[in-house]
Each structure stands twice: as C-alpha cells, then as structure tokens.
C-alpha cells in the first residue's frame, strides 16, 4: 500500500489517553481533581508520547453515573473548575502538540436537567417531546436493562403526568428523544460549542442506544437512523474538518461496521474494537493466541479513512459480553474467580496487572500487542504505570481510583486533602501508591512506564503499524501470534507468545540475524525458525 494520504488524518496513528479530571490531579487541595491540576501534569503526557487526550464527562452533574448524567451541556462542573480553566488546559495541551476530545452524551440527560424537570411538570411542557413517553411500556419497545443490579425495567412511571419515560440506563437518566428535530439541533449546537472552545472531536457515548430510539419509537417513519449519525458527523466536519467521532459501539463486527457509515455518508471515525479486546482476554486465559487470531481474521476493514480503536481496559467493567457463557466462565476463572471481582454477570472490575499476577513479562506482552495491532491504541489512565484496582470500592469505581503520582500511601500525590474527600481511595497492598507510582518509575529504565513510553515511540516511528495492510502468518505453536503490517516498501513483523513457556516459531523472515525493535537485541532466525521466550514479544522491521 502506498502512503498517499496526508498527515491530517491524525487519528490513524494517534495515541489516545482517557482520563477523568476528577481523579487525575487535585490543583486546589480540596480532594477532587480539577482542570488546574490536570494542566500542571501536562508534561506527563508529553513524556509518554500521548497525542490525544480523551476527557470523560466534566460537565455539571449530580454525579450519580460518574458524570454521564448531565445537567448542563454548556458549562464545567464547578468542582473541576471553570470554562476558563478548561480553555487554559486545551490551550496548554495544544501548545504541547496534543489534541483533546471529550465525551458526548446524546442518549440521555440527568433527571435533574432543567429540560427534564420541565418535561415532567406537565404534558404541555415545551420540553415534553424532548424525552420518550408512553402510557404503557410498549410490548415491542427496546429490551434489556444495562445495569441489572439496579434496574428491572427500561420504563419509569411518572406520577405527576401519569406516563412512563424511557431510560436505557439508570432511571435517573431519562433518554432524550433524538427523533425530535429540536433535540437534534440542540446536540449539534453542543458539539459546535465545544469545538469552538478547542476540542478536536468526541467520544460518543452509547451510540447504538440513541440511534435505536431515533428510528424505532417515536418516528417509525423516519429514514434510517444512521442518517442522524451521518448528519452529526457532517455538521462536525463543516465546523472542524479534522475532528473525530470515536464511538462506543459494543456489537458484533458485522453490526459495528454499519456505524462507520454505510452509504448515507461518513458516521463514526473510529469504533472501539470490543470483540478483539474480549478475544484477547480469552487468549490470555488459555495461554493461546488462537481466539485473537480468529477475531482478527474476521475483523472487517473499516471503510474510507475510518479506523478501529484498540484498548486493553476502559473505565467501565471489563465487559466479556461477546464471549460465549463457557468462554466467559474461563476468563472469570482465570482472572476474576471471586464474585466480588465480577460485575453484572458479564464483566470484571479489575485492572490488568493484578489479573496477570503482576508478571512483568506478561503485562509487557499485552501492551506490545496494543501498540502493534492495527488500530488506534487507547490507554486508560494509570495503565502506563500498572495501577491495580481497589475492590473495597463499590462497582465500577474499583478501577476509577486516583492517579498514583508519588509513593505517598495516603494521597498518592493526587491530593494533599483528607482521603475521605477523594472520589475513591487508592488501593492498599501490592498496588498501593508506595509500590506503584509515576515518580518511582520515571527514571527506572526497567519500569512499565519506560516500556510503554518505548512502545509509543516505536509505534509512532513506524507508520506501517497503523497504515499498513495486516497479514496473519501461520504459527506452528498456537500460543504464538505472528502478524505483519506492510506497506509497498516496508513491513513490521510482530511476534507475541501468549504462553509461559519458551517456544519456537516461524516468523516468515530470512535466515540470519535480525534486530528486535523493542530491545535492540539481535536474534537469529535459523532454517526459518526463531526462539521466543515465555510471554515474549518481538518486533522486526524489513524493507521489501
Ligand atoms: C457508557 C459509559 O461508558 C458508562 O460509564 C455509562 O454508565 C453509560 N454509558 C451511561 O452513560
């Protein structure tokens, strides 16, 4: 493949870093992270090589769903700072060559949002049709509660106006009626507002949920709901030509493909690869690359300039919902055997390093995969230093503990305040801030932080990885994944051993010495064979 595209398709080889302002750095000593603190930490991202920061919701909120329950789309949660602090932060990030994107929550608002307060006042409210109301929960309406521990229905009865409203998530998050043109216009205005303040796009929350509402409920006669997504994309592109929509679409590959745009125009720029992520965990549990090979072989090529977004962990439960029940049970048994580690029957509320017994070889191999597989890698804060979870904290908050900056057992360098005021306390034990923190790892060449910094710089140096064509090479040992990303002139061959034993493989490289791009060590290919250490990972560059 020839690299004819221009570099303003910046997302193709971006390194995205997701964080929650609330848990990243407290800049005013009140126990809550804020934009001032975040801005002071900008050098961390620069040293790591991050090119795009994804901010989780930072808008005013009663905070019953970690900010995904919004009460004002045009402001900043006062606990986190002001609009001025936000703009200073974006400006500083830009100065260091980084873009900023943020969550866009179109599916629902908080029930405390003035729109919903008005809507539930009376059936004649001008905002009544901004939400989805029914006299009775319809028999043919959407199905499946997302949070089975909290909700039993998608419909909540409103006493005052004697109708039910739809809520795909919690009952305190009523679904917006995106079939209503007024809602559509407002959401475009929200996007325009934040683009004007310097955002380079959005991580779009819960995409299939709001599109489903667009088509199937209030306006069954509406054209394809995907047109709505295409409209949002077109609007964004008019305002900011290189802005992106990174979509949360946890569906099988063939269904996800539609969300990139299938004829009605461009829709999402990137979709998270939930299927590949889950296959990887199954492979890790089995000590076999086969599930991931299978997923990659089935993974469709996104159309036009769209791209997959790859990840190891996000801020939610580590969902395993696309695995079969038996497969999920295997991953649970390997990585989260105690019911306390599991959530909603479909996921794990753990971070990677404790799941992999803290084995540095294994952990490094996983991140080597993240940066070598085609797709845009997305890191979740704390992954770069190998943070663990705090199971003493409820639900998904076990993986949303403060960023660990310093070996301070109490405040982790996150805040000098009383930890009782923190959004969640840092873990104790082997993953406490005394053991896992940025300060200790920063100047240690053997640390995970140094490893991830190295992976990022190699990934950025080698456009074959994000731009090249993927070939999966046959491996005599199913524990080993061999993949190659090739352009017309050059290729990178990457080898990953999912097992804890040394093995030999056939990397498809000529006999003789080859330099591993990661360690700069020379390894020998003899009669087509190469020795791979336990959990080994090697990258080779070749000119063709
Ligand atoms: C998906 C987000 O990732 C999750 O954290 C949130 O609870 C739901 N959407 C509802 O907004």
UniProtKB/TrEMBL annotation:
Domain Glycosyl hydrolase family 13 catalytic: 18-400
InterPro entries: GH, GH13_cat_dom, Glyco_hydro_b, O16G_dom_2
Superkingdom of the source species: Bacteria
Cross-referenced CDD domains: AmyAc_TreS (cd11334)
Protein name: Alpha-amylase family protein
């Amino acid at each position: 493949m020839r690299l004819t595209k221009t570099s303003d398709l910046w997302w193709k080889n971006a390194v995205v870093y997701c964080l929650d302002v609330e848990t990243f750095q407290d800049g005013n000593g009140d126990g809550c992270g804020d934009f001032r603190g975040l801005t002071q930490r900008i050098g961390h991202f620069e040293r790591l090589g991050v090119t795009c920061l994804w901010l989780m919701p930072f808008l005013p909120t009663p905070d019953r769903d970690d900010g995904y329950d919004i009460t004002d789309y045009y402001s900043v949660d006062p606990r986190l700072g002001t609009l001025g602090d936000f703009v200073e932060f974006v400006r500083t990030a830009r100065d260091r060559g980084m873009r900023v994107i943020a969550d866009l929550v179109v599916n629902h608002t908080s029930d405390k949002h003035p729109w919903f307060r008005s809507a539930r006042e009376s059936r004649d409210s001008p905002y009544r049709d901004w939400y989805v109301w029914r006299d009775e929960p319809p028999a043919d309406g959407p199905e499946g509660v997302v949070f089975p521990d909290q909700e039993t229905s998608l419909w909540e009865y409103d006493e005052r106006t004697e109708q039910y409203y739809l809520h795909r998530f919690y009952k305190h998050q009523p679904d917006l009626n995106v079939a209503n043109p007024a809602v559509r216009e407002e959401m475009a205005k929200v996007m325009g507002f934040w683009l004007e303040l310097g955002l380079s796009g959005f991580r779009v929350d819960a995409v299939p949920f709001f599109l489903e509402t667009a088509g199937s409920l209030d306006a069954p006669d509406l054209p394809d709901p995907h047109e709505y997504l295409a409209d949002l994309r077109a609007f964004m592109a008019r305002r900011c030509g290189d802005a992106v929509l990174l979509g949360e679409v946890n569906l099988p590959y063939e269904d996800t493909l539609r969300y990139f745009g299938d004829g009605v125009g461009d829709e999402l720029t990137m979709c998270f690869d939930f299927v590949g992520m889950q296959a990887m965990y199954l492979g890790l549990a089995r000590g076999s690359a086969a599930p991931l090979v299978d997923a990659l072989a089935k993974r469709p090529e996104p159309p036009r300039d769209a791209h997959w977004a790859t990840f190891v962990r996000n801020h939610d439960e580590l969902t395993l919902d696309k695995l079969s029940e038996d497969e999920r049970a295997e991953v649970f048994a390997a990585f989260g055997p105690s019911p306390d580690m599991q959530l909603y029957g479909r996921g794990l509320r753990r971070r990677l390093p404790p799941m992999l017994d803290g084995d540095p070889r294994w952990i490094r191999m996983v991140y080597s995969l993240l940066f070598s597989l085609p797709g845009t890698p997305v890191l979740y804060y704390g992954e770069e230093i190998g943070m663990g979870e705090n199971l003493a904290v409820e639900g998904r908050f076990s993986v949303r503990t403060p960023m660990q900056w310093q070996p301070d057992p109490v405040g982790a360098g996150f805040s000098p305040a009383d930890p009782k005021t923190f959004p969640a306390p840092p873990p104790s034990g082997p993953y406490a801030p005394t053991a896992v923190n940025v300060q200790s790892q920063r100047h240690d060449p053997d640390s995970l932080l140094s490893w991830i910094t190295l992976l990022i710089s190699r990934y950025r140096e080698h456009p074959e990885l994000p731009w090249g064509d993927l070939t999966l090479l046959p491996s005599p040992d199913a524990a080993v994944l061999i993949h190659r990303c090739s352009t017309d002139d050059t290729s990178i061959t990457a080898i990953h051993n999912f097992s804890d034993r040394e093995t030999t493989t056939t990397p498809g490289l000529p006999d003789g010495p080859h330099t591993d791009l990661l360690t700069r060590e020379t390894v020998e290919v003899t009669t087509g064979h190469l020795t791979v250490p336990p959990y080994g990972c090697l990258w080779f560059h070749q000119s063709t």
